[in-house]
Predict the structure.
Amino acid sequence: MPRRAPRHVLGGMRTPRGIPGFLKTAAICALIAGLLSPLAPAAASETGTAQATAAANDFCGNQCSDILPPGQNGNATLAQILLNQAFGTLPEHAGDQLGPYADLAQEYGGLTNDRIGEFFNDASFGVPADQVASTVRPAGRSDVTIVRDKRTGVPHITGTTRYGTEFGAGFAAAQDRLWLMDVFRHVGRGQLTSFAGGAPSNQGLEQQFWRHAPYTEAELQAQIDNAVAEGGERGRQALADARAYLDGINAYIDASDRGRSFPGEYVLTGHKDSITNAGTIEHFKITDLVALASVVGALFGSGGGGEVANALSLLAAQEKYGVREGTEVWESFRMRNDPEAALTVHDGSFPYATRPDDPQGTALPDAGSVEPEPLVHDRTGSAASSGATAASREAAGTALSSAKRGMSNALVVSGEHTASGHPVAVFGPQTGYFAPQLLLLQELQGPGISARGASFAGLSMYVQLGRGQDYAWSATTSGQDIIDTYAVELCQDDHHYLYRGTCTPMEKVERKNAWKPTVADGTAAGSYTMRVWRTKYGPVGHRATVGGKKIAYTTLRSSFLHEADSIIGFQMLNDPEFVQGPESFQQAVRHINFTFNWFYADSEHTAYYNSGDNPVRASGVDAEFPVWARPAHEWRGWDPAANRADYTPPSAHPHSVDQDYYISWNNKQARDYTAAPWGNGSVHRGDLLEDRVRALVRQGGVTRASLVKAMADAGLADLRAQDVLPGLLRVVTASPVTDPVAADAVKKLQAWVAAGGRRTETSAGSKRYADADAIRILDAWWPLLVKAQFEPGLGSGLFTAMTANLPVDEAPSAAHGPTGSHAGSSFQYGWWSYVDKDIRSVLGEQVKGPLARAYCGDGSLAACRDTLLGTLKEAAGRTAAQVYPGDDLCAAGDQWCADSIHHRTLGGIEHRTIGWQNRPTYQQVVEFTSHR
């Protein structure tokens, strides 16, 4: 059955394809004549004489580069949207970074330092005079200019006052991402469907995030107030910066409304009238920033959760093997501290969330009693359709899982091992592929601010990932556990619980949404109510019984009610007077309460720090499972009113300065530091970076080009082919393969492994893979072999429970992650370590941290070989159309297209698909030549 690629917001827009041809032409001609004409006066009223911006204390020596596809311009008028839909034309700078980004995958083999500019932007400060495209004084202000360069249209914002600088940042952000910012402030408030339409994907999106952060308006404001109060002088400055930033956004809204140059999506969704200009684009307010921050934190910075799923799989293991052996089996699959795992910090131990010797307070559910707490109630119209209910189930699974999407990587090499003697870094976040992109580029220069880089749209008062005058920084998702599940005992009824001995009512928080068809989203009218029951221990996620007692399982997150706290850390990163070296960098990111790995490079030093508010748990509490909601098992020092607790000190967080090299691809941070997601074992995609960077360091003379090549090569590698397939083939070929079908498959797989195990085109633009048959065979074989290898020993019940903790596969063509298929990021979660350790055990090879028992062939090499050969022959017989069944973008059997990256539409502009790369979305290449 063909897969359907999920669509969000305007992904299913019916214009103009849903309009008859003659009306299509008439509409476009009218829009060209009538809607484009006001643009010039509106722009001219804000544009001054073009002028260059000076390079402000830039110590990078023209060796800082970056890239962010598809392009800087994420706004489009109605006329531009219709032209794009009809003829594929793009607004200026909407897609001009997509080509260089895509081309690297085919051309990285010949990369030199001199050619980096073909695939990345120049990220130097300032704009040369001959490269200035426009200069704007927003709202006629004299204290700020926005200069955009010709090549990419990136805004270079220079202010003579702090207020003017931030006003310019807000104005430029709205110029580039107003519609997207509006979409995500509604996502954060759980109001997307009422704003943009009731498509099932929109329903799922708002449900996923509102379940994570179901705040009232008063709570959004309180988070601002608390962050300011606790931040002292920096907190007060952050509030002033945010207000100036909002003033800039709202000034652009007013100017675009007067000039009728606002994003066309407002017309298509019924918020504005294209003829009369009636309707309103709501001004932004400060609580919108907290709503936006909650979305970013939920997507990338809140590790943990999944304790109920862990409990269910543990119970299944104990039912299968008995309590003692079942627990051992479960622990061996969990791999909390696997000795073969790739590490970011090479030395030292940083114990966190380790397994207690004598667990206390664990509240495992009674068998068969667990039920997820329903979020959606009172469905009417299209909200009651099968597609809508399926979207709700998927959203609930994503929100309650510990398998957060990491999607970022970093490669940093110290100057001791580089050709220049200066550190080199290639790093960036893998934030998915959207049109427009969630991030935007900018340069900010003003009093106390000097930085260029990427920021999330609507939160760009500071650069969040980028470079300063003589240093650069980036982050990857870390995933350590800051979310715990508590079992609250019910009393009186289903909506009262015992809190420290007192029967206490739960708090009901609701969001009522309704929608009707628009030009953008033809989903029939519908409505529903989202309802969350909250306790002192967090929102209710499941209900069950424990020892016969009725309980509710709640999730308590350390960053709940603290979505705004990280603003101080980002402010520090942008302040050249604060960040003077690796130690002050680490001090800055300590103020970021989201769970990230932070990396730093200047001309002399490199550094790393793992951020997040890691709660200090009560002695004996096992963070992997639900615990009783009783004072003895609460976080130490926990204040439920403010959701504050004692947190582990900075020295307990993995950190380092001037290590020979750092790699991160959402792998394990350090020895004894437990990450919440499963799968940190002997095979992880972090190994793809580790192997390549370690080899470069041993060779010496690392350059920007060689480090980019290592990243790009890893980004085309099939992790299974490089790190697991060789062992599988050793088992298969332990005796001669006589079956002709299996023998042919083995030959093709061996040739692919020998060629490097990459998923690459035969030639640039061919849209056909070299080793296509081998790739097809492995894609078909992997799920078959995993099931045949493990299900007989585990039993179907335990096998199914374990796959709920960790999916079997995450190949590029799989529909996975927050954006479904065509998402780029691959091989983060899968059973690669289980297969690897089990196969090596069967082969009699040394395995550190083995599984509790052998599974393939019950430990017999001959029986294991028979199992693998049988599934291999079955896989080889599957056609391309069976392995790649097709979807809205691809015909069945089109292997390259099945893997390809598609920028998911969050507005009205569509972009072409590009070939698969497993690579950061925004990426920097930096090598500073000097220091202040």
Observations:
- Residues 1-7, 12-46 have pLDDT under 50 and may be disordered.
